[in-house]
Amino acid sequence: MPGTPDALGLVVADLDRSVRFYRRLGAPFPEGAEHSEHGHAEAVLVGGFRLMLDTEASVRSFDPGWTAPTGEPRASLAFRCGTPAEVDELFASAVVAGGRAHKAPWDAFWGQRYAQLRDPDGNGVDLYADLRAVSADPPNSRASELARQFEVAQTGFISLVESLSDQQWRLVGSNFPQRVNDEDEGRTLGVIAHHVAVNGPWITDRIEGMLAGRQLAPVDIKAINAEHATEHADVSRDEVLGMLRETLPQIVAAVRAIPDDQLDQSRDTPAGPMSVAQRLERVLVGHLKVHQGSIEATIAGAHGSEGTLT
């Protein structure tokens, strides 16, 4: 008599971290499951199928020769979302919860909005939704689209920071696409990444100031950047990733909350007249992309050579 598929088991390094990650994706692990003294947690999914998590120590208690696999996963857990927009939102949320972006959401040729991640232990996780599904958001919600653009940009930046080696973290950045603020880039990639992390909330606050009718005071960018580079010369990758993951949903929510009828309102800024939408696209999202370009150009230039280390 054939067996009945009943459960899928994953071996994890940190039960608390993995339970929190899969809860974020929708797996209903019961309260306190992450504190199991036996290193085992279960969530009952739709239809009674179970997702089981066991710690490495738990598995080695009955299989002492077990070793963690290496390389790319051969299988993945797939989570269906209600709409394409939910794929984007859950993808960003999963990265915040400790997942690693593998492929940002895209419109697949087979008719689905699709995204791929790795869970905290490197297992494959896919998210998808039918492209024909109707979002609950207004169809012409420009603010939601701008929020999505930022979400994709920062999620991609998080993935890039995760990929940097210790040596790359100390490389001096390249000018991209040219000199910015009439000065050469002289900061390490680690300092540049931290600069991006701290400036997202600051830029968002200034945009909210525009919406409130406040005059944006000019700032000495060169002096601020120089002081920041000195104070955070030894910043760690974990610190930067923590900041980026924490602020991502906060900024997305702030942008999405902007009424569409206020996006085209023009305000005087230190860079000249600019609408709220332009500030979002050119400064909030543009700032991320410029610095990501600098990091990627630096890595490409150092490929096959020692590069310039501090």
SSE map:
Layout: E1 7-12, H1 15-25, E2 40-44, E3 50-55, H2 56-62, E4 76-80, H3 84-96, E5 100-107, E6 112-118, E7 124-130, H4 142-163, H5 166-169, H6 189-211, H7 221-231, H8 237-256, E8 266-267, E9 274-275, H9 276-302
Parallel strand pairs: 1-3, 4-7
Antiparallel strand pairs: 2-3, 5-6, 6-7, 8-9
Helix pairs in contact: 3-4, 3-8, 4-8, 4-9, 6-8, 6-9
Structure notes:
The chain is of the alpha/beta class. It folds into three domains: 1-68, Roll (2,3-Dihydroxybiphenyl 1,2-Dioxygenase, domain 1), CATH 3.10.180.10; 74-136, 2,3-Dihydroxybiphenyl 1,2-Dioxygenase, domain 1 (Roll), CATH 3.10.180; 142-302, Four Helix Bundle (Hemerythrin (Met), subunit A) (Up-down Bundle), CATH 1.20.120. The protein is 45% helix and 15% strand. The protein has nine helices and nine strands. The strands form three sheets. Strands 4-7-6-5 form a four-stranded mixed β-sheet. A hairpin with a 4-residue loop joins strand 5 and strand 6 (112-118). Helix 3 packs antiparallel against helix 8 (237-256) and helix 6 packs parallel to helix 8 (237-256). The longest helix is centred in the last third of the chain and has 27 residues, at 276-302. The radius of gyration is 22 Å and the shape is globular. The model is unreliable at 304-310 (pLDDT under 50).
Order of helices and strands: EHEEHEHEEEHHHHHEEH
CATH superfamily of the largest domain: dinb family like domain
Under the CATH scheme, the architecture of the largest domain is Up-down Bundle
- What kind of sheet is the major sheet? 4 strands, mixed
Fraction of residues in β-strands: 15-25%
- How are the strands ordered across the major sheet? 4-7-6-5
Structural category is alpha/beta
Radius of gyration: 22 Å
Terminal CA distance reads 66 Å
Taking pLDDT < 50 over at least 5 consecutive residues as the criterion, the unreliable ranges are 304-310
Report mean pLDDT, rounded to a whole number.
86
Approximate helicity band: 40-55%
Shape: globular
Give the count of structural domains: 3
